[in-house]
């Protein structure tokens, strides 16, 4: 019965669901994505996104969405549709919903910004239900309304940004298959709106998720596509800079995976970071999307520090993480928590086990207070890295403290 219901939700054969659950065969995503890839029209795009939002607010279907597997092969399909699919011509719409004007679009953008601020402060668990409800209850009727071609394009872009938010919060909660579906729909809505800047933001979000899950090749494809799109469309400096840093992070990850740091990769990372810093120094412009405000100097410094940690420059990594902690302490608790862990990783790389453990200990209460599975997982991954020192008093005490705090 469970498999039959899941097949009904996603429009696939029950045998396909069996493969997802049992893992006996590679997942064939063709049935999932056929509608999206074969028909890029605005009506089909709106219907596909709306179907996802409806399922996510339906109590009988929500848990099925949460159990979706992450499918690496699907990333290639989303990326191909974005990069090589035919452009979608904007068109006026005469639907059954309300008359939509620029003020309606602005309200969606303002709501997206407000949800983003809440997410930074409290984690995804608090904000995600409100985001999904907003998509289904507010955005869906507007997409079915009456609007000019210009307003329609802006509406698609705003819907893409809110859909990205739903994907990001699913990622933060560890619901990776669900996050993947939202990111894919956000990318398609970006294309429907003809907005490359929103599209590259979604691509770099997808790359971040792929990094987290260890799919480094796919992360590299997504990151390069974001950078290439930004260059081709002459994106503003504050858009291009974080994309370059993200690409540098992925190059550093791929190099570290091979064991010894590759000199060529290290030079490539340095070149990307140098360009990112030069570009960021050019300042803002009137073309900057709202999301660039979150990629300020501390945020960029945080990701730059990850690059240096992977390349073995642990002192530089620790300095950048500590600077980010000071900047984020009040306004972005989750970012502060993640940077406590970045600093702890850097100290561990130096061989300073006691300082690493002490630093990580400061992050544990934050992980417990945030509604963010990612924050908790970050601390647990660090605890696993301490296994070579498991016999030491510091590590035994830290692990006991961690288990007690997260259990309370």
From TrEMBL:
Pfam families: TPR_8 (PF13181). This is Uncharacterized protein. It comes from Sphaerisporangium rufum. InterPro entries: TPR-like_helical_dom_sf, TPR_rpt.
């Amino acid at each position: 019965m469970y498999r039959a219901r899941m097949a009904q939700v996603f429009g696939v054969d029950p045998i396909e669901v069996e493969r997802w659950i049992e893992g006996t065969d590679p997942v064939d995503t063709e049935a999932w994505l056929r509608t999206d890839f074969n028909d890029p029209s605005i009506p089909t795009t709106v219907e596909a996104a709306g179907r996802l939002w409806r399922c996510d607010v339906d109590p009988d279907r929500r848990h099925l969405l949460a159990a979706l597997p992450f499918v690496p092969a699907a990333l290639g399909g989303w990326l191909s549709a974005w990069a090589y699919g035919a452009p979608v011509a904007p068109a006026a719409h005469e639907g059954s919903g309300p008359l939509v004007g620029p003020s309606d679009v602005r309200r969606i953008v303002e709501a997206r910004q407000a949800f983003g601020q809440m997410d930074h402060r409290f984690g995804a668990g608090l904000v995600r239900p409100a985001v999904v409800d907003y998509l289904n209850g507010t955005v869906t009727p507007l997409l079915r309304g009456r609007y000019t071609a210009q307003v329609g394009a802006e509406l698609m872009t705003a819907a893409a940004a809110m859909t990205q938010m739903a994907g990001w919060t699913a990622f933060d909660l560890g619901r990776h298959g669900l996050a993947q579906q939202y990111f894919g729909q956000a990318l398609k809505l970006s294309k429907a709106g003809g907005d490359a800047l929103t599209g590259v933001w979604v691509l770099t979000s997808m790359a971040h998720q792929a990094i987290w899950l260890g799919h480094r090749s796919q992360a590299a494809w997504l990151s390069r596509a974001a950078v290439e799109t930004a260059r081709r469309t002459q994106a503003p400096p504050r858009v291009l800079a974080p994309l370059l840093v993200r690409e540098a992070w992925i190059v550093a990850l791929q190099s570290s995976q091979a064991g010894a740091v590759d000199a060529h990769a290290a030079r490539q990372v340095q070149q990307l970071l140098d360009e990112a810093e030069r570009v960021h120094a050019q300042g803002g412009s009137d073309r900057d999307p709202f999301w660039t405000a979150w990629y300020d100097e501390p945020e960029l410094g945080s990701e730059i520090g990850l690059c240096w940690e992977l390349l073995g420059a642990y002192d530089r990594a620790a300095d950048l993480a500590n600077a980010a902690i000071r900047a984020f302490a009040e306004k972005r608790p989750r970012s502060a928590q993640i940077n406590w862990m970045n600093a702890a990783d850097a100290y561990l790389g130096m061989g300073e086990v006691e300082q690493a453990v002490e630093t990580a200990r400061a992050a544990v209460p934050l992980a417990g207070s945030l509604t963010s599975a990612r924050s908790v997982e970050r601390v647990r991954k660090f605890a696993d890295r301490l296994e070579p020192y498991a016999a030491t008093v510091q590590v035994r005490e830290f692990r006991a403290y961690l288990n007690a705090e997260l259990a309370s």
